[in-house]
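Lecture 7, part 2: worked example. A protein chain together with magnesium ion.
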Amino acid sequence: MNLPTLDALDVKDQRVFLRLDLNAPLKDGQVADDTRLRAALPVIKDLRRRGAKIVLASHLGRPRGKVDARYSLEPVASALSELLECEVLLMDGPRGEGVKGLLASLRPHQVLLLENLRFDEGEEANSTELAQAWASFTDIYVNDAFGASHRNHASIVGLPQLVEKKAVGPLIFKEVEALNKLLHEPERPYIAVLGGAKVSDKIGLIESLMDKVDVFIVGGAMAYTFLAAQKVPTGASRVEKDKIRLAGDLLSRVEARDKILRLPLDHVVVSDLAEGTPVRVTEGPGIAEGDMAVDIGPKTRADFAQILRSGKTIFWNGPMGIFEREPFAEGTLHMAKTLSELSGAYKVVGGGDSVAAVQKSGLAQSFDHISTGGGASLEYLEGGDLPGIRVLRL
Ligand code: ADP
Ligand code: MG
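Predicted complex, written out as structure tokens:
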């Protein structure tokens, strides 16, 4: 993979700047979901065991370059400290005199956490000056923040450019390994299940998958723009009017390459999104005026499942309906279940909402890889690399 790994470096007594994705959801000043923190534990523990002096760094939310107490990493520091069973000392800023002083006295096995990197406007601007400030105390740079690696930020790109000894952490390694398999050696038939909110969000992804997959299965709101391109009535469903042409274009290209793009055969519809509005199922693909499709219908679920059984590699991004609302979640949950039952295929799910749906279904363990990078995973599949990973390649 051409990526330097942490095992190859001697970290004893070295100051290691470890860029993590500790961007955990907060509620009432506490970490509401510590999944990302737990995911980071192995690499921190490994560095401690090996006697490194550890400086953790992460962003949290979007404070837009200003100190904002609502986005302090304080709750993250205390949660991490409990999980690691050791002190995690939170610095008062992402840089500054106080930070410098503490760093000078940093001892092996100790763990510092810089305050939210985005409190400094230099982070998102990829400021050389900020990168230099960090480089001045960094012996080894490690990136294990896959979900931030598509950003051209100082802690992701600027800093590693200034540090000689650097590596990717285990989470990035695992992500790249799984996504590379999809990119470079998918066993065929390769099926992509796409859904979610918009075609426009996923154009790049569809383009890059076009050369690789054998079958596209399309559900979610995205499907209605494609149906509109085929002149199927879509009622009041979410259609991106300015993308109908592009969808038509994609459909002809798929056809010209002898590939298949499968659309829903029926839908779950409502006349109104208000709670308690009766839920109906359409006869066929057409949707009556005033009706809004909110999920794929039962015929579609069965059809998609049938096609998926032939897949050897399956990538899923995008829910099949408005899965956040229980009455409209069945198509998405059924998809998770169908995939979980396919034992002979390599299965990857990626994208923030899709991953949330799979986790909600309780079937996460039956996937080969759950790509937690959100936008970063999709960008990796689109372009085959990310700025924060490219800068580390050997
Ligand atoms: P991901 O985060 O996995 O990449 P997206 O962000 O593209 O997925 O899409 C998820 C969103 O799409 C969800 O909020 C879901 O409610 C919405 N969605 C799915 N189907 C529909 C639909 N038929 N109408 C409106 N919104 C939909
Ligand atoms: Mg999303």
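The radius of gyration is 23 Å. The chain is about 35% helix and 15% strand. Keep this in mind for problem set question 3.
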